[in-house]
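Archive maintenance. Older records in this collection stored only the sequence; we are now back-filling the structure field for every entry so that each record is complete. The fields below show one back-filled record exactly as it appears after the update. Entries are processed alphabetically, and SpoVA/SpoVAEb family sporulation membrane protein is next in the queue.

ARCHIVE ENTRY
Title: SpoVA/SpoVAEb family sporulation membrane protein
Organism field: Roseburia lenta
Length field: 118
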Amino acid sequence: MDYVKAFVIGGLICAMVQILMEKTKMLPGRIMVLLVCTGALLGAIGIYEPFVEFAGAGASVPLLGFGNVLWKGVKEAVEEQGFLGIFAGGLKAGAVGISAALIFGYLGALIFPLKRKR
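Back-filled structure field:
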């Protein structure tokens, strides 16, 4: 049942983003930034963590979850290091996800080379 719940919640998040993309003139990059910032904001006010406990991977995998991870990393680093934690916390908490995106993006570029249009 956890898989079904994660699939439905993740699908609803993706559907809302798709509607936002189609009904507004916002560029995809701005929508991605909006999602990350929304996840961080919801994490800061304490709403996102209970949502992740309920929805599982359906809430933790999308960009909203990445924003929440950044927020948690910054919060923990500020508690440990003070002001400098603002800069180090998010990078430390999101390092695995960022590294995976870079590595898999590079591997994808090697496997599927760019075809130039003429």
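Update note: The first helix runs from residue 2 to 23. Helices lie at 2-23, 28-44, 48-55, 57-60, 63-81, 85-111.
Entry marked complete.
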